[in-house]
Amino acid sequence: MASRLKAYSDLFRFENALTGLIGVLIGAIVVNGATFEFSDVIVVSSFGISVMFFMFCWNAYNDITDIENDAMNRPDRPLPSGRLSVNSARKGMYFSLLVSITSLSFGLLELRRGGDLTAVYYSGGIWLLAIILLVSYEGFSGLSGLKHKGLLGNLCIALAIGMDVIFGASGMGSPTDAKVISLALMAVSFSFARELIKDIEDMDGDYDRATYPRNVGSEKARSLAWILTLTAFIILFIPFLSGIFPQSHALLVAPGGVLLMMVKTKLYISDDRSAQYLIKRSLQVSMAGVIASVFLLA
User: Fold this and answer.
1) Torsion of Cα atoms, 245 then 292 then 184 then 57, to 10°
2) Among candidates 169, 170, 58, 50, which has minimal Cα distance to 105?
3) One-character DSSP codes across 59-127
4) What does 16-63 look like in DSSP terms, one character per residue?
5) Alpha-carbon gap, residue 199 to 141, rounded angstroms
6) Which runs of E-coded beta strand occur in 129-275?
7) Percentage of the chain surpassing pLDDT 90?
8) d(CA 165, CA 28)
9) How many CA atoms lie within 13 A of 268 on its CB side?
10) Residue-wise pLDDT tens digits, 112-137
11) Ramachandran region of residue 126, left (φ > 0), alpha (ψ -120 to 50) or beta?
């Protein structure tokens, strides 16, 4: 039983999906502070669960469609290793999608009950846009998706990740707040660099995809990945230097900046897995710093 649960956890990439839920929570906290009414709790938790379970669904779908690639790149993944059957993965995918849609509907109904129709439209529109981005990435009806279009595919995933924060803020009626937009840009820039490095890591197995590393070679791709990482570093501190957040609070995200600077060494020695892991941890540490800033301002 425990081994099967572990297989589903790996299939769904539980830690990554949990980050989506946390992103929704961060978006809500940034615009609403630490004080939530009961109806706010219902909306934010419903939206967070919706995002997390949709990511479960998407990750399962991605593993099903990429099973041959994973047999080369990630033979320990649940499907190529035989820990889960494709049929079991499909059942988990459909169940996760059902939970996601149900949870989204619950949150939207609570917003409507409160009379905030603008928030209903914004939130529903953001969720649909995220779906469109992810479907465009994978492709449908025989059409090749953006994952075959190099950097466009990486950017597509990064944009979808950045929308988690905006989605959370939309539930509070403030999706265009300057703090929220700055955090979304932060998430997009970090994720863009990380997605490119993941493609470098998976070059050998991505034999059927025209990824940027396969088109230009690993060294040129690493050079661009470092440029994108530096861009993420700059974007990390712009909200503090521009006064969106207090300048003194930049110290709270400085550890995240240090982790980003460590990426260069990993790229130089071609340790791509460690490089993308550092970016992931940097984003998590930076978001924690932002939350601390919000609580200090409360």
Assistant:
1) -170
2) 50
3) HHHHHHHTHHHHHHH-TTSTTTTTSS-HHHHHHHHHHHHHHHHHHHHHHHHHHHHTT-HHHHHHHHHHH
4) HHHHHHHHHHHHHHHHHTT---HHHHHHHHHHHHHHHHHHHHHHHHHH
5) 24
6) none
7) 51
8) 8
9) 5
10) 988 878 889 999 999 999 888 888 88
11) alpha
- Give the confidence band of 73 by pLDDT, cuts at 50, 70, 90: confident
Average the pLDDT over 37-56 and give the result: 92
- C-alpha torsion sign, points 18, 227, 274, 58: positive
Measured CA to CA, the distance from residue 146 to residue 143 in angstroms comes to 10
What domains sit in the chain, N to C, each tagged with a CATH number? 10-174 (1.10.357.140), 177-298 (1.20.120.1780)
Query: Which residue is it, tokens 């990426």?
Result: 263
Which residue is associated with the tokens 């990486």?
Answer: 154
